[in-house]
Each structure stands twice: as structure tokens, then as C-alpha cells.
Amino acid sequence: MAREFVGVLSRLLTRHGNRVGALLYGTEVDTVIPARAGRMHVLHLLSKLSQRPAEAAPGATQLRDLLLAGQRMIKRRCTVFVVSDFISPPGWEQALGELSRRHDVTAVRLYDPLEMELPDLGMVTLRDAETGEQLLVDTHDAGFRRRFAAAAQAREAALLDSLAAAGVDTLELATDDDLLDAILRFADLRRQRARLATGSTPSHLMRNEPRRAS
What is the mean pLDDT of residues 187-196? Predict the structure, then answer.
């Protein structure tokens, strides 16, 4: 979903004469794509994205390193999209806030709905994408599912508070999201931003349907 969203957004931006570039992060910032315009450049960007591994290497993602690299490399004020699940050790919040003071930043937060609320599937092996650690859990246990949902809700609230404190707009993008719906939500987010006075509290655009564990 992230790759498709970036592709469509890049094509829309370049059609209006804007240039797009990217910093790609694995275990470090390993790829820098300078900002350029044109269809061939978008195809080049998508080619680089398609070469990324399906899963990140084990180990905690240091989002702070990516944000600090963005501060160093992006010299002129521009629109910045931080596409991430924002699952990272503390410290990225301040770096994101500093980036948003220099640029117009939108956090595109990726998530899997199963991270919010587990269905009743019996015994299931859960794997931590950051560490590779696996845990066998009984999703048939209603109490466990409630505790899981409550923890997810608390984690979600803390994350959104951190994004709000950093002064960025937030677009949530689920793995099962409809791409057209996501683009329309982004367009609505931009319209809301345009109506806000400078220095006003940014709006946060959530998915249209309510989530019991958000």
C-alpha cells in the first residue's frame, strides 16, 4: 500500500510541475533520490521502492536517524511526507517537530488493522516485525483479545498525541485501505490545511469508518 500511495501521489505532484525526491531507510538511510520532475523520474523512484526487501531487517527502526537526515539534506522549504508505521524507539518526536518547523510535514502513518484488534482465530503465532521474536497466543481467549485491544488503543492515543505535539498533519493508511479513498482523504487534509491560519493547531484526518480500537 505504501508503494502504491507514493507512486500515485508522486505522479499527481509532478503533473503540476512539482519535483519529488525521497530518502529511503533500511537499517540506515541507504538511498537518496534527488528531487526531479517528470514521468521517467517517478518510474525511477518506484523502481527503487520495488527493490526494497519485503520485510525490514531485524532490529528496531531508528526513525530519528531518518528525520535528522531529512533536516540535513532538505535545504529549501518544501512539502515533506514521512511514510512510516512510527514504531520506533523514543526520540523521533523532537526530530519530527524540528522538521515540521522548517517544512510543511504530513505524517503518513501505516498500520495493519490486525495490530488494533485480533479476530478469534484460535492459536496464532505473532511475530514482532522489529525484532523477529515470535509468540504463540490463544486468540480464542476473549480476555486476551480485550487486553490486546486496550493496549493497542493506549498505544494509538500516545502516538497521535506525539504527532500532534510535533505540529504535523496525520493521514492514516491501512494495509487494506482503498487507494482512491486514501488520496481523497489526503486532498481533504490539504484543503483543511489551506483554511487554517498560520500557527493554528493542525487537523488530524482519520479513516472515515469508526474503529473500536483506534
Answer: 77
